[in-house]
Specification:
2 domains
Length: 210
């Protein structure tokens, strides 16, 4: 039996094409909305044929998910957010106050990348069943991340008296919603630095022992 040979150059070209498609689609979703963007629009924006778009990524919902995933971590490398050095640094910080400051910085950076595509996903969730499923999955993932962060505070005996883990997780889940960054930075013209400071102060005030 002959082994299939996959050229490294061919793989690199395929990966480059995939990324070009995702970037073109993200720009269109943000500018025109998910519903207002067709597969033909994406193909034209990426400079490829419609068949190439489907072969590389699948349908529109899959492309939207890929655009969101890239925005979360900042690249197309197959390394999940919890395994990124900056995420590891947050959870390994022994001091609860400094951990919250680092977490706020991380959330600010992530939200700056993801908020526009997150808003596009939110807008499409009521009109497309596949996107609704994506939207629900994203919210569930963020809820799990919030609960995990609260767990780090509990492990450091830093969670303030009078707030249980469920309520603390609710608070974090609400404050790290990219829509909040979009509202305050993209609409209300806060600087990212102002948002980061406010988020750290708010998280600390809500969660830490006084």
């Amino acid at each position: 039996m002959k082994r299939r040979y996959q050229s490294p150059l061919r793989r690199a070209q395929a990966q480059s094409t995939r990324l070009t498609i995702i970037e073109a689609a993200a720009r269109l979703f943000i500018a025109h909305g998910y519903v207002g963007t067709s597969m033909d629009d994406i193909a034209t924006g990426a400079g490829v044929g419609r068949a190439t778009v489907f072969a590389s990524l699948g349908g529109k919902a899959a492309i939207l998910r890929a655009a969101y995933d890239i925005a979360i971590v900042g690249d197309d490398e197959p390394i999940p957010l919890p395994q990124r050095p900056w995420a590891i640094a947050v959870r390994n910080e022994p001091d609860a106050k400094r951990m919250i400051d680092a977490y706020a910085a991380m959330i600010t950076d992530v939200s700056g990348r993801v908020a526009p595509i997150y808003e596009a996903m939110h807008g499409a969730a009521g009109a497309d069943l596949e996107v609704r499923e994506l939207w629900d999955a994203m919210r569930k993932e963020r809820r799990g991340g919030a609960a995990g962060f609260v767990g780090f505070l509990v492990a450091r005996h830093a969670l303030r008296t009078g707030i249980d883990r469920k309520r603390a997780g609710d608070v974090v889940w609400a404050l790290i919603d990219p829509s909040l960054y979009h509202l305050l930075v993209n609409e209300m013209a806060w600087t990212p630095a102002q948002f980061r400071t406010w988020l750290a102060e708010t998280l600390g005030g809500q969660l830490l022992q006084r």
